[in-house]
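$ ./design --mode recover --in tokens.txt
reading tokens...
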């Protein structure tokens, strides 16, 4: 496991607060909508928080800046975590989270770039987002970096590996892919459905640089990004995560892949996140 500390203690504390808020906002939206995907949203809270608050060159003042860094949430069902980060970043008011999944809302169930300020790519059909990220990285011509998050279950889609193959062939050094390796997909443990085996070996066999980290550890994410930036070619950051992270009764369970909490469960979840 890669781990190096570059963040100051102050920055680390601030990022942890942002991730906590990210989880609360995701759950607020899902609870209000009475539907959505809490498990896969909670598992990427640290990754999206790091990208939007410590890495990416993006600004709510100029959301369509042609030179901004791009983000593709290839596992689009985790939209609440992306919306929460964008709200925290000032792309729209946090209050909007309560309109999640409503007809006419800017916050649809899956990311829609024509509806939501700050969303670079519409996603939701698993397997496709990485191809679009690859295309964006080609189009960047050195002007920006592209970041994508893919799910471990999503890696079962063949199109993922087409994009992986081409990204190496084109030596896309500006492409960084975070694998949210939470070991659970929609209906159960990923390895019981179609095992992913050794992801580091897999990506390396396709010519990629790899990092393997705890995806809930900001210093590890920082260390992986620093090492990735020094290398030529695309990088896959294999992030060991916990589906439903932060809410004990949701952790590691496929039951909370696509279920909203009831009032009692919502209160318990918020209390636990707040207390952490
Ligand atoms: C092409 C396609 N097939 C099926 C689905 C339905 N679906 C949504 S999430 C999901 C499971 C994804 O698992 P994983 O990538 O591990 O996501 P996470 O654990 O991060 O929620 C499935 C099958 C979809 N969105 N797209
Ligand atoms: Mg998963």
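writing sequence...
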């Amino acid at each position: 496991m890669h781990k190096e500390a570059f963040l100051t203690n102050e920055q680390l504390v601030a990022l942890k607060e942002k991730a906590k808020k990210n989880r609360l906002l995701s759950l607020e939206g899902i609870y209000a909508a009475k539907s959505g995907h809490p498990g896969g949203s909670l598992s990427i809270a640290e990754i999206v928080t790091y990208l939007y608050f410590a890495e990416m060159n993006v600004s709510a003042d100029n959301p369509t800046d042609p030179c901004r860094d791009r983000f593709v949430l290839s596992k689009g069902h985790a939209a609440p975590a992306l919306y929460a980060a964008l709200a925290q970043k000032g792309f729209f008011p946090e209050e909007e989270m309560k309109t999640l999944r409503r007809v006419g809302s800017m916050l649809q169930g899956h990311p829609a770039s024509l509806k939501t300020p700050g969303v670079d790519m519409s996603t939701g059909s698993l397997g496709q987002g990485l191809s679009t990220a690859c295309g964006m990285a080609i189009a960047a011509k050195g002007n920006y970096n592209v970041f994508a998050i893919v799910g471990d279950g999503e890696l079962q889609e063949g199109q993922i590996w087409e994009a992986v193959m081409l990204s190496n062939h084109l030596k896309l050094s500006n492409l960084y892919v975070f694998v949210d390796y939470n070991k659970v997909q929609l209906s159960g443990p990923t390895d019981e459905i179609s095992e992913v085996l050794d992801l580091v070996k897999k990506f390396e066999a396709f010519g990629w640089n790899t990092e393997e980290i705890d995806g809930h550890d900001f210093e590890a994410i920082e260390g992986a990004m620093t090492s990735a930036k020094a290398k030529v070619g695309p990088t896959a950051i294999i992030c060991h995560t916990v589906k439903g992270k932060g809410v004990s009764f949701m952790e590691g369970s496929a039951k909370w892949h696509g279920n909203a909490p009831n009032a009692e469960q919502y209160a318990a979840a918020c209390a636990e996140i707040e207390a952490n």
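exit 0
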